[in-house]
Automatic annotation (TrEMBL), chain A:
It comes from Anaeramoeba flamelloides. It holds the Pfam family Clat_adaptor_s. This is Ap-2 complex subunit mu. The lineage of its organism: Eukaryota, Metamonada, Anaeramoebidae, Anaeramoeba. SUPFAM superfamilies: Second domain of Mu2 adaptin subunit (ap50) of ap2 adaptor (SSF49447), SNARE-like (SSF64356). It is a peripheral membrane protein. One of its GO terms (cellular component) is clathrin adaptor complex. Belongs to the adaptor complexes medium subunit family.
UniProtKB/TrEMBL annotation, chain B:
Belongs to the adaptor complexes large subunit family. Its main location: membrane. SUPFAM superfamilies: ARM repeat. The keyword 4Fe-4S does not apply. This is AP complex subunit beta. Residues 5-524 form the Clathrin/coatomer adaptor adaptin-like N-terminal domain.
Length: 434, 747
């Protein structure tokens, strides 16, 4: 199992070392400095040195490293490192850094002692951890028989991710469906790759132990309901068109056995925010944009570029912060760009024309044309990398996934305010070949 | 070795501080000094004394200290047993747990009896928190004296504790037994245990689930019925949100294939999609081991992923290690259907200038490897290689020539038809060493088949004396000799020249020797020389650098371990337990002082100021008890109309006793004017500002109302990165001040 957890900064200074098993020595940690930090080539995140394995992840200016002597499951180690980072974010804020670690030595040690014992991961649920971690005077003032009892109940409870006895005067659920597009489209508009990675993120403020049930327009589910009759009825009505999910993973709280028998997603959610599910859809996905690139090399020193972008989503919607990056040859001298909408300029560092449109309304057609002048001289091949787009479209999903219902059942709750938001995102992963 | 002044100062502080909150601060300082690598071992007795506190926070830190320095203070350790024992009786389960965990972590022979007694009690404790700690403590006890655990009550107790309701206790019992019984092959995995654990599988944490799955993977089901039951039950967990669980389930499935050979393809089909999703959804670090596992499966079942080739196309943002493994996978899954798609992708990576040189060479090698697997497409591969060579980009030409040579070795007859007519042109455009060597080898081996063969070689011979590469010289010697035996009339003169040059005018001993060797061979028996030089070569179909197939079979057995990542069976990389552990421990001491690059003076200053800073606060604010504990909570408020003359500012800037550097990032880029505006709004005074290239430089200062402290600082802002350099007279204040500036700017 894990022999030790280290925090080392770029310069090789050990910020924290917590050794759980005596099969490694502090001096051996130097090997990490020599073999990883001092190595000229960037190494992969799993490094083997004389029978010892270092698994590490970089966070800002330092590394978090797990050291082990055993031949164990690498995924577990990385999942664990990721969990540590999540826990630390919970305690020290999103942007925790070397300084936060330094100023909170003892809290860090406390955490590292509770989440792992003799190299085996223990409680890593932030909610439950709060019961063991005693920062400041909290415990001395509040410590009561009640809380001691709580520890026993909490740690035993089958529902490890939720505290009992929560109470909110206003019960709210926020559901965010966020889809990340990974599209590669040929210059004639055909899909070469169409992956939609979606996440269902739930943020809840609910009293008691609520049973939640989430209904999606998942094809398998709808087929099952209607006994398979509806399979051939395509495009019935907007939100109810069934979609085919290739693969889905759920948070620990989702009852997988129920999903398997009747495809219903039911769970008792952790308090606050969590990722309820992530899924992948590759069939029948919709393109939010159509891009028509025309790139012509005129002689040896000029390239004419004309890019037309058409938004295919409804005119009631709009895309925020759209950025179109149009690559130019590496020997570009200057670009004469004309466009009516948005800002466009040539960025020599990435060899691209960067065209940004703050608000891109649905069913709109925008175009940009440019004359790219090249530096004469050494002619090298231009590999014509694809055009890439960044955008965020609220209230739109490329897969067509919709939440059909969200039921919350809990005795003490009379009314629940529910919010559902959809978001479609591309961070340069929507690409069009030219 | 120990910094006696630091120790003395700490000891004094410990004795002086009576108030809980103040003591806590002192102990916190001790722990942070310890983390910096200061040897605080001499404080041991003082710390043990301090452990008799009721404050849990202090207790935790003190126990941490005791565990760290126990080894060096063996004779004093017995002092601490009283405290440990008392804490094991505490009302608070957290204290009992902490004490048990710390005491057992000492793993000290002297304490073994106390340890055993408390562990036995701990196993019966009414709190499950304590029980789960006691369970793992048994392993530590076992490490110190195995006879106290093996075949005793404890072992039996642990087996019964697997059935406990508390999931942590249950899982910890499993791992404890597994370690204790490691020499007997681990915990005895009975059907009863497996059924029990699988029944309550959903209760366990991901970590627990991974451990149970590890057991199930080693379990041999009694019947086919049982196999299917396990399969159906675990199938759900391929949808788990945890990579470790998914990979562990995959391992169980793969092991079950041995019992259900007819389901082989279906089983692999089940794990295919989850694995692909993991690659795209996880971070780079996680994707790496997952891809390694996909690669391994692909070596066994190339067709499984054949339709998914596009998922392994590389992205410019991938780190090199992911790009490499993705290319490896593409090489494995290539078949007649996806061949064109894959080769096209690889070729586009080769010429893609945004990828690094290493990857483009790697792709060329991959293309060569694919050619060796799918012989029917070798002509397309050769076309690509020829195109690459014409690009005239050194590293691409180099790699392409080497692969071209290898393809010719594999399919001489067919490929020579395409390559031979091009040789002359190639010889004119190639400049790099390895590429030349490959070309010369081709010429020597097959050059006689084209008319101009000897003349191309002759061109190289002409420049032999200027050639600086020994490799090229040696290759040329051999090739010219081969050519001589095939086309004697045209090569006779060339051979004479080269032998002369090699033996008379070379500096490299190897070249001289080879020249002399050939010369003597020829002069002894020319016919025998011919038969030696032109001996028949065996045909071959597989390169030795390709991995042996048996390796992958062994690796399948070690699925979901580091073996797969390293592509080596565990036997090959595990290290034999150190023979001279003592030596290493000595090293340990040395390096712990070496590596700590602190100056004693500085540290002493810092500690004293940290603690003194507290005194000032106490005087200033009577109800400061809370503030001592959490200094971060102190608010800075700046005086609005504070003003410094430029000369005063400069004077203070030059003469400030303390300096603090602090880097942070902004959420968005701002221009100089907006920075100044923000600073002014918050009562900072701007002394000077300017723009150097794209970096904004601002000098600023401010005075805190409550502490009357003045802080000066300089900001260097490039994009969203801010470098802050603050100066002042009090480090404590300076820290707060810097943090305040950072919060002002980031908000």
């Amino acid at each position: 199992m894990i022999s030790g957890i280290l925090f080392i900064n770029e310069l090789g200074k050990v910020l924290i070392s917590r050794i759980y098993r005596q099969d490694i020595t502090i001096s051996f940690i130097d090997q990490f400095k020599i073999k990883v930090l001092a190595a000229k080539k960037t190494t992969n995140p799993i490094k083997h040195v004389e029978g010892t394995t270092f698994c590490f992840r970089r966070i800002g200016s330092f590394f978090i490293v797990a050291v082990t002597k055993k031949n164990i499951n690498a995924a577990l180690v990385f999942e664990f490192l990721n969990t540590i980072i999540e826990i630390f974010k919970g305690y020290f804020g999103e942007k925790f850094n070397e300084n936060t670690i330094r100023t909170n030595f003892s809290l860090v040690y406390e955490l590292l002692d509770e989440i792992i014992d003799f190299g085996y991961p223990q409680t890593t649920e932030t909610d439950i951890l709060k019961l063991y971690i005693t920062r400041e005077n909290q415990r001395q003032t509040k410590k009561s028989k009640e809380s001691v009892k709580q520890i026993s109940i909490k740690a035993t409870g089958v529902i490890g991710w939720r505290q009992e006895g929560l109470k909110y005067s206003r019960n709210e659920v926020f559901l965010d469906i966020v889809e990340n597009l990974h599209f590669l489209v040929s210059n004639s508009g055909k899909f070469l790759k169409s992956d939609v990675f979606g996440e269902i993120i739930m943020k809840s403020r609910l009293s008691g132990m609520p049973d939640c049930k989430l209904g999606l327009n998942d094809k398998v589910l709808l087929d099952k309901r209607s006994g398979g009759k509806r399979t051939k009825m395509k495009n019935t009505r907007g939100g109810n068109t069934p979609i085919v999910i290739d693969d889905v993973t759920f948070h620990q709280c989702v009852k997988l056995s129920k999903f398997d028998t009747d495809r219903s997603i039911s769970f008792v959610p952790p308090d606050g925010e969590f990722q309820c599910a992530s899924y992948r859809v590759t069939e029948n996905v919709k393109k939010p944009f159509k891009v028509i690139p025309i790139v012509k090399e005129r002689g040896a020193i000029t390239v004419d570029v004309k890019v037309t972008v058409i938004s295919l989503f409804s005119e009631n919607l709009f895309a925020k912060n759209t950025v179109v990056r149009i690559p130019t040859p590496p020997n570009t001298a200057e670009c004469v760009i004309t466009t009516q909408t948005g800002k466009a300029k040539y960025d020599p560092q990435i060899n691209c024309i960067v065209w940004s449109i703050k608000r891109f309304q649905g069913k709109e057609e925008l175009s940009l044309s440019a004359e790219v002048n090249l530096i004469r001289g050494k002619q090298s091949v231009w590999s014509r990398p694809p055009i890439s787009l960044d955008f965020t479209i609220p209230s739109y999903t490329s897969s067509g996934l919709r939440v059909r219902y969200l039921k919350v059942v809990e005795k003490s709750i009379t009314e629940v305010v529910k919010w559902v938001r959809y978001l479609c995102v591309s961070k340069g992963t929507f690409q069009v070949r030219i | 070795m120990s910094s006696s002044r630091v120790i003395k100062s700490f000891r004094q502080l410990l004795n002086e501080s009576k108030e809980q909150s103040r003591r806590r601060l002192v102990i916190e300082q001790i722990i942070s000094a310890m983390s910096l690598g200061v040897n605080l071992s001499p404080l041991f007795a003082d710390m043990v004394k301090a452990a008799q506190t009721t404050d849990l926070v202090q207790k935790k830190m003190i126990y941490l200290y005791i565990c760290k320095y126990a080894e060096e203070n063996k004779e004093l350790l017995i002092l601490s047993t009283g405290t440990f024992q008392r804490d094991c009786q505490s009302q608070d389960p957290l204290v009992r747990g902490l004490s048990l965990r710390s005491m057992s972590s000492l793993m000290n022979k002297e304490l073994v009896e106390y340890m055993a007694r408390e562990i036995k009690k701990g196993l019966m404790d009414r709190s499950n928190y304590v029980r789960r700690i006691a369970v793992l403590a048994t392993v530590k006890l076992f490490r110190v004296s195995p006879e106290l655990v093996l075949d005793t009550e404890i072992e039996k107790k642990l087996y019964s504790m697997i059935a406990e309701v508390d999931p942590y206790v249950s899982i910890n019992s499993v791992v404890a037994l597994n370690e204790i019984l490691a020499s007997k092959g681990g915990i005895s995995i009975t059907q009863k245990i497996i059924i029990h654990l699988l029944k309550r599988f959903h209760e366990f944490t991901h970590w627990g689930q991974s451990i149970v799955l590890g057991l199930v993977a080693n379990y041999a089901p009694q019947s086919e019925q049982e196999c299917l039951q396990i399969l159906n039950l675990l199938d759900n967990y391929l949808k788990s949100g945890n990579t470790s669980v998914i990979l562990s389930v995959s391992k169980v499935f793969i092991n079950l294939i041995n019992d259900l050979p007819n389901l082989r393809n279906q089983i692999y089909d089940r794990i295919k999609n989850p694995l692909i999703t993991l690659v795209s959804c996880s971070g780079d670090e996680m994707a790496y081991p997952v891809l390694k596992h996909i690669y391994l499966i692909a070596t066994q079942l190339p067709n499984l992923f054949a339709n998914e080739a596009s998922r392994f196309f590389i992205k410019g943002s991938d780190p090199t290690y992911l790009q490499e493994i993705k290319i490896d996978i593409l090489c494995e899954i290539v078949n007649k259907q996806n061949f064109k798609q894959i080769i096209f992708a690889l070729a586009s990576y080769v010429i893609n200038s945004s990828l690094n040189e290493h990857i483009s060479s790697y792709c060329i090698r991959a293309i060569g490897k694919i050619a060796s697997q799918l012989s029917s497409y070798f002509d397309m591969v050769i076309d690509y290689l020829m195109e690459f060579i014409e690009l005239d980009i050194p590293h691409i030409v180099e790699a392409s020539m080497i692969i071209l040579k290898d393809v010719i070795r594999l399919f001489p007859e067919q490929s020579l038809e395409i390559v031979l007519p091009e040789l002359k042109r190639l010889s004119e455009i190639i400049h790099t060493e390895e590429a030349k060597v490959s070309l010369i080898w081709i010429l020597g081996e097959y050059g006689e088949k084209i008319d101009e063969g000897p003349y191309i070689l002759e061109k190289f011979v002409e420049t032999f004396s200027e050639e600086s590469s020994e490799k090229i010289k040696l290759e040329l010697l051999t090739s010219v000799l081969k050519m001589f035996f095939k086309r004697p009339p045209e090569s006779k003169k060339m051979l004479g020249v080269i032998l002369h040059e090699a033996t008379e005018n070379s500096n490299e001993p190897d070249v001289i020797d080879r020249g002399l060797f050939y010369y003597r061979l020829i002069s002894t028996d020319i016919n025998k020389t011919k038969s030696i030089v032109l001996s028949e070569k065996e045909n071959f179909t597989r390169f030795t650098e390709n991995d042996p197939l048996e390796l992958f079979e062994i690796l399948m057995d070690e699925f979901n371990t580091f073996s797969v990542v390293y592509k080596k069976p565990y036997e090959q990389f595990k290290r034999i337990i150190h023979k001279n552990e003592e030596e290493e421990e000595e090293e340990d001491d040395d390096s712990s002082t070496d590596s700590s690059s602190f100056s004693e003076e500085e540290l002493l200053d810092q500690i004293q100021q940290n603690v003194n800073g507290l005194d000032i606060n106490q005087q200033n604010q009577s109800q400061s008890q809370n503030q001592q504990n959490s200094q971060e909570e102190q608010e800075i408020e700046l005086e609005p109309k504070f003003n410094l003359e430029p000369s005063e500012f400069q004077n203070k800037w030059m003469n400030s006793s303390h300096n603090l550097n602090f880097d942070f990032e902004l959420d968005e880029e701002l221009d100089k004017e907006s920075f100044e505006e923000i600073l002014k709004e918050n009562n900072f005074q701007v002394m000077a500002s300017g723009l150097i290239q794209s970096t904004i430089k601002i000098f600023c200062y401010g005075k805190d109302i409550s502490s009357n402290q003045i802080g000066l600082f300089q900001l260097l802002i490039t994009g969203v990165n801010v470098k802050l350099n603050a100066k002042g007279t009090n480090p404590q204040f300076l820290k707060l001040f810097a943090e305040y500036i950072a919060t002002v700017l980031t908000e």
